[in-house]
């Protein structure tokens, strides 16, 4: 628990989350305004006492190795994580292929919502707010074992955006499109 003092973002990259004091420390971190990125690979195990920190229940591995794999079919480009990719020639998420992912069912509650889906409709990235903090759940890996996103030009800027958003740090917008509304307050 003391390891989380002064930390803005915790990344759980395909790991089993222990229960007990570690689970309590993660909960406190998020409720107090910290960010949590859960990368759901094959080794991800989620303790029951933290079930309410995920946007939905963690399911089985979806295997798409037969065929061409899935692609990102729906992305919320209005969300801060994807906002920098919404313009022309700013990155193409549809080129990445996903051969495996974890099933995640996001309910209709206001607690969680889906930011990206694969072309088969399953959840790729979901978000929920807990207390003052945020949790993002990515249903594939961040390496090349389950997908080839790490080989795409959007990968590194995407990681930067994930961490920037989860940390709560937002830089001043340096440019605006013609016709955009500028809030001077």
Task: Write up this protein.
This protein is α/β, with parallel strands linked by helices and 185 residues long. It has two helices and eight strands. The strands form two sheets. Strands 1-2-8-7-6-4 form a six-stranded mixed beta sheet. Strands 3-5 form a two-stranded antiparallel sheet. A hairpin with a 2-residue loop joins strand 7 (123-130) and strand 8 (133-138). The radius of gyration is 17 Å and the shape is globular. It starts with 8 loop residues before the first strand and ends in an 18-residue tail after the last helix. The mean pLDDT is 87.
Contiguous uncertain segments of 5+ residues: none
Percentage of residues assigned to helices? 10-25%
- The shape, in one word, is globular
**Sheet of most strands:** 6 strands, mixed
Percent in strands: 15-25%
Cα Rg: 17 Å
Topology:
Elements: E1 9-13, H1 21-31, E2 35-39, E3 58-63, E4 72-75, E5 100-104, E6 112-118, E7 123-130, E8 133-138, H2 155-167
Parallel strand pairs: 1-2, 2-8
Antiparallel strand pairs: 3-5, 4-6, 6-7, 7-8
